[in-house]
Structures are given as C-alpha cells and as structure tokens.
Amino acid sequence: MNPINKFTSQGLVNLLGSTRKARIMSASAIFLAVCAFGAAGVAPLAPDAADLPVKSVSTALELPNISAQIGALQQQESTEKYVHEERIRAGDTLATLMTRLGVEDDAAETFIKKDKVAKGVMQLKTGKRVQAQTDENGNLVWLRATVVDSQDTPVKNILVSRKGDGFTASEEAAKLERRVEMHARTINSSSLYAATDASNDGAKLPDSVVRQIVEMFSTNIDFRSDLKRGDHFNVVYETFWQDGEFIRAGRILAGEFTNRGVTYQSVWFEDPASNQGGGYYSFDGKSLKKAFLKSPLEFSRISSGFSMRVHPISGNWKAHKGIDFAAATGTPIRASGDGVVDFAGSQGGYGNLVVLKHWSNYTTAYAHMSRFAPGIKKGSKVSQGDVIGYVGSTGWSTGAHLHYEFRVGGEARDPNKLNVQAQAPLTAAELSRFKMVSGDMMHRFALLRPTNANASSLAAK
To answer: For 161, how many CA atoms within 13 A lie in the half-sphere containing its CB?
Structure first.
C-alpha cells in the first residue's frame, strides 16, 4: 500500500472520528464552514458610512404675502351675490316681501312702486314665487317674478335689474316647458280620488286630470257605483313647468280604464294639417266625442227659447232665433264644440260677439259678452269646453245673459231639434297619421300594464 494513501486515509478517519455519529457531526461542521467562507467571498465590501463625504445644500424660501391673500379674499367676499326665493303670503306688502328676500335697498323699492312694468310685482297672487339676488350689503342685483291670469296660467315674466346707479324693468311672455307624464293606478277602495293620491311612484294625480278621467269614461262607467277593488287604469297626460316648478296639468293624451274585467280606451288626436280642433278616438280611429254641448254655460237656466216672442226692447212680435241662458255677469262661456274663431268683436244688437266655425257647415254664435277670454281672436283654434268669453249685457240686452245660436249653412236652427254628428270622420290621410299617434300610446300602455293583466278590451263610445 502506498504510504501517502495510507496516511491520508488514516488522517481523514482521525479527522471525522471513528464512530458513525461522530463522522456525521464532523461532516456537518465542515459543510457549514464552507458555506460561510463562500458567502464571505461573494458579499460586496460596502464603504463605511462615516467615510462618505457630506455636502450641505441651502435654499432661500420666499414667504407668502399674507396681506395680499387677505385682500383678495375680501375682494371676493365683496363681489359675492346671494339668491333668495320667497312665496307671496296673504297680506304681504312690498316692504315685507323685500325684507324676507333679504333686500335692504330703498332705491329698488321706490323704483318698483313707480315703474309701470315693475309694479306688477305688487299684484302677484298668494303662493306665487319671487326670486331676488342681492350683494352682501342687501343691495338688489335683480328680482324676477311671474304674473298669472285668472286661470292661474303664467302670462309674463317680470325682471327688475340693476343698471349702474339705477334700475330697469322688462317683461316677456312666459315660456312653459311641456312634459308628458304617465301613471298607473289600482283601485283599492270604492273611491277614484283615493286611488289618485300619491302611490308607489310618489306622484299625486292633479285634480284636473281626475276630472278628465271621469268625463272621458262616464258614458261607460258610473264612478259612484261601478268601481270595485282591483279595477285598474293607466293615464298619459301633459304637464307644464317653468324654471323647474310645476305650473299646471294639461290635457289627457290617452286613457285606459279596466272596470270589472272590461277595458275602455281613448286617445287624443289633433291633426296638424287640419284647421279643426282635436278630439278623442278609440284605437281603431272612431270618434268618441259627444254631440255639441247642450249648454255653453255650466250652471244656468233657459230664459228664452227658440221660438216666436215679443222682443223685450222693440216690443214687436218676432222670431227669436237662438236660446237665451240667464246667468250672472262674468259667468264663463264655453265653446260648444271644436272649431276656429270666425269673428270676435262688437256687432250691432249682438254686442260683444264670438262666432265659431265648426266642421262642415256648422257655426255657433255667442252674444252680449262682457268681455272675451284671453287669446280669442279671428283664426284662433278652440276645443269643446274651452272658455271663450264671459256673460254680460252688451248690445240690445235688458240684463245679463248669453244669447246662443246654432247655425247650419249660416241659418239659425234650433239645436234641440237637430241630430248633429259632433265631428267629421277621419280621412284616409288623417287615419294614417292617427295610427302613428295611437301606436305610441299603445306602447306606453304596454309599459304601464300589470304583467298579469288579462282583461278584454272594448273601445269607449
């Protein structure tokens, strides 16, 4: 055996030990030592932080100009404007209204009292809205209000504005935004009005819409006795708004009422290509309009019929070619049917007279009016029931009353003895346009109907 190999083997045995346990422990120690030396060999030699060079950097910072900032804030505050809104209260004076609006401006108050346009603010009705903008000292910047007519419909807007050291006042016609609303209701009691109160959609139907529902379906439904729990109705109607404020409800555009399993429907149609007014139709295009109103006045009595009589002024025996309705001065006069104003003015013994031209050769005349309703002039379109004037005693009249004539081909006829169709049937062209309108309303009804609705359908008549 080679002496070197023998020595080496013997040395390794002595180094590791002679027992198995000793050899395992010795081998582990050698392995860890090798790892430590290897780690030391690959670790970077970082410089001591104390030996790194140190450099000081200094920069002069400019402090903000506090005085300038305070001045800018004060300038901003001095130009701030404040907008206030108030409602007219019973017993309000201009002074109390201006105080609630935060206006402390004697010059503005004096201007409003004296200017013929601005003083309209002092004639506003209780509950109407007034807006004003002031500066921080209460000086008026502008004031805005809306004047309404007897029907509570906005007529004009008044604007008072500061201009230099003085003020200017201007007015413009009120511009209303038209919206279309649709609602569904279920009868949970015997009252229609209870069903029109605020429901899941949070909206209460206006009373004028409820009245139209009753009028629209009253020929088919007795709303005092026919309603039952579970009846359902859908309604689409127009509303008018100004500056985000509800002003009034308009006409029902379509209605659908399911009573005891039978559904009645009605849709408003007004042909833009026609001079005649609109009307309600079934969904197959048949007119639902009733005959001409029996009386142009809601509450009145006939004081003289269509017959021979002694004229109250001349004393002569002659034909009375109309019907006289006794009523107090100022009683509203309604159009007995859709039509166009053919005449509005003074005419001899008739006094203040309105003549309406209806379809075909029918016309109606309304005499002795105290005054005309706003907007009534030659060429104006009116719908059945619209107010066209007010009872008076102008012309050859011995007292307040309405003289009403129904004319066929220009000749006065007794309306009580005529069987008159209220409206001409739709032409082929009108029917085509009608189908577009009715199709839109049918789609709206489909959206409103309960998913489990399975009622039969019958057009209202």
So the answer is: 6
Q: How confident is the model at residue 454 (pLDDT cuts 50, 70, 90)?
A: very low
Quick: pLDDT tens for 309-355: 444 544 444 455 788 888 899 999 999 888 899 999 999 889 999 99
Closest CA to 117 of 96, 143, 137, 136: 143
Euclidean distance between CA atoms 402 and 295, whole angstroms: 10
User: Under a CB-based contact definition with an 8 Å cutoff, are residues 326 and 301 in contact?
Assistant: yes
CA angle 78, 84, 85 (to 5 degrees): 170
* 105 contacts: CB under 8 Å, gap ≥ 6: 98, 134, 138, 139, 140
Distance between CA atoms of residues 378 and 388, nearest Å: 12
Which stretches within 79-188 are classed as H helix?
A: 94-100, 106-114
| Distances from the Cα of 396 to the Cα of 73, 238, 323, 328, 368, angstroms | 75, 42, 15, 17, 8
Q: Taking the CB of residue 302, how many other CB atoms lie within 10 A of it?
A: 14
**Span 107-120, average pLDDT:** 93
